[in-house]
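Researcher: Following up on the earlier apo prediction. This time include the ligand. It's zinc ion, with the SMILES given after the sequence.
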Amino acid sequence: MDKKEILSKFSTDPERYYKVKLFEDERFERKSCVTCKRFYWTMDENRVNCPDHSDDTYSFIGNPPTAKRFDYTQAWKEVESFFVKNGHTSVNRYPVVCRWRDDLYFTIASIVDFQRVMGSKVVFEFPANPLVVPQTCLRFKDLENVGITGRHFSSFCMIGQHSIPNSHGYWKDECIDLDYRLVTEQFGVDKKEVVFVEDVWEGGGSFGSSLEFFVKGLELGNAVFTEFQGDLSNYKTLDQQIIDMGAGLERFAWLTMGTPTAYDCCCGPITNNLLQQAGIDKNDELLVTYFTKIAKHLEQFSDLSEVRKNAIKSAGLSDEQMNKIIIPVEGIYLIVDHIRTLIFAISDGALPSNVGGGYNLRMMLRRIISTMDRLSLKLDMNEIVDAQIDYLKNTYPELEKTREDVKTIIGIESGRYENSKLRMEKIVSKLNQKPTVDDLIRLYESDGVTPDYLKEMKVISDIPSTFYSKLSQLHQSKKQKEQDQVSLEGLPETELLYYGDDPKEFDAKILKSFDKYVVLDKTSFYARGGGQEPDHGTIGKFEVVDVSKHGNIIVHELKNGIPKEGNTVSCVVNSKRRDGITKNHTSTHILNSSSRNVLGSWVWQHSAFKEEDHARLDITHHSALTDDEITKIEKLANSAVEKNMPVTIENFDRGTAEQKYGFKIYQGGIVPVKSIRIVSIEDFDIEACGGTHVKKTGEIELIKITRTKRIQDGVVRIEFVSGGTAIDYVKQHDDDLIKKSVELKDKTELKEKRQEQKQELREKFPILVESITQSKIGTSIVDEIIVDITESGKPNFCCTMSDQYGEFFHISFGEKLIEKDPWMVYCGVFEDGDKIRAIIYSGDQAAKDKKAGYIAKIVSEVLGGAGGGNQRFAQGGGKDKSKKNDAIEKVKSMVLEV
Ligand SMILES: [Zn+2]
Ligand SMILES: [Zn+2]
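Model: Understood. Below is the ligand-bound prediction.
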């Protein structure tokens, strides 16, 4: 269905779709814009244009239409007190990480808080009716506008006003009356300034009319009436009609403050402080002029660089004014906005990474750093985080708890970026033409090079407006639902004995048997689910090899045949297997909490797998685990085991469970049922879980982490064992340790032995050296060392190939010998494995003519190998052991020239 078609249909019958009681009572007039023909409602008889096309558009900048000024914090207090005064419950914001929907990474609107997906249907669950909520929403598709347009944020507070029309709630008349009074009575805007524009909404098979409300060209909110289902030719009223009014809190503040941009009044003193640090006067008239032009041009041009170009022209700004004032101001706005978003996202458990929703966070952090570098701003990110949380905690006190964690994560991520810069520089230097949008995406996806970095390096002058939206699309959640292969139509829900008495032996009736599958009327066989592997055992005489859940029906897969339909059979669950799996499952919960306690609040279960004799838990964490961290996690987990805490299981209504325990219960992912099974280990760990668990943690006996590994950016895998398997593992490990220590002892002894030998030799060296150098002219032998002493002024020669001497001897002894006798040439030959080696020394005098390096070369040639060195010391060798004597003779003749 096309929105335009719905709008044109609804516009033909304004009485039915748009006219509310307020318009009647206050004599609002319905008009059509002379420029764009859109229909709107106003009390101003002189108005001829819709808010987008009026002369007074954005005239509130520098001239706010209210007597009082309200910043972000104060604006929410006004909104909240107004709605509470008018019968609404004020609900705390929901997390910005949307863990209750598998098609969204982040919460993008206040209505998302109350949507739960069951199969293909979206159902609404409101904790109160009517209600108001200050919902922080994250949206990344307009990222290139942030800082530049004055009104786009990567995260903003959506004031959610929601009502279901019944005895508690209300419908269109009261909704519009409240919104009108909020703006006029509570905020003090003149009645004539409020304009309601007709629009429509459609999505998820339903649709309805909506009224957007504007003051001075600024859209403050949009009241959507979810009313119909079907298509335009045939539609009916929904059973559950819903008021979904979303308004921008930032815009309420901006309107009353009249600052040049919305960033100036919504981030408390932070923006002002940063402007001051950068030496910019926030009261400069130029800012008001420029940003008013920007706001107006935004309605006229679709391309952001056109908007900017025209604003510069019509505000008459010089290049110098742009470079010295506007560009740094834009950068500071961007930094303030992006850090605010990171604070919310990290506090709610998201981590910057290169996958899923984490990619947006990494991108933003890199934009912050690039912007600081480009503008040479020396800002302290920790200080900005502190200042923002100090301000935001007025509205969101929960942010105080994660203050340090946010700083830790930002610090780690910034370090990573700095480290990758050198690599990026190289990649960028190789670019030989201006990159296209697809090039930019490839550069970011494969090399982590952000377009902001390219801008900083002056490779591109602007970031193409399609870049962020294209990239966002690439990272949309694309979870595929498993398809049911089996036809189970007409079968009743299987009675689940494992949630009751959980008998390991029971009789059951075969309701259906086909191929290798069997469906029973009741079962104690746990079906694969939530990372827990299925039970095994027997049904009749057949072995159960797999169990799966299809809707509310359990299907058992058997081996070697199936029993007959209609029969009653006796069934036995393999309790040893179940026992192992169960211990591992409860251990997963314990390790998950232990990891969060040791590492930080950002740790969530990413996924888990529980088999009989091994299990793994994947957690969200920024780095690989250190040995110290692993030890601490294991220690904490085992102290939870030792405390023998009871594991209790209770069923709650989903809404009640969420309110009572928060969204941390969704560690195992979303739970698509209205009644939630909460598994709690006192207050150590509380999770929504459908698995089997021990009754007391002591039953687990021991948890042993066997291995950890960083399996993807932002995810660490912990492999572990528990129960008897863990005890066996530790014993085995101890045995291995003993073996290893025996080997180590042997090695040490050997080393000591060699050490002793060396010591002996050292003591022997002076005596040997002394007796050799004292030898008479001619040939003599000392301790298997042959010595040839010549007349003075000629080289002497000394050699040995005795088996009792090894490398250490030759190297140490040769050295000492030539020190004592500078006319000496020493040659030691010894076997080393399958090789024969030679060590040559030549004393200072002898080396003038008989260089060690040359001698080694010749000896090696004889031995069938190669060698070399300097004139004093050289070595070589070869493989031909039979040439040992030839080699020695060769050296001797070379040295003595005989
Ligand atoms: Zn218009
Ligand atoms: Zn679980």
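Model: The longest strand covers residues 234-248.
Researcher: Noted. I'll compare it with the apo version next.
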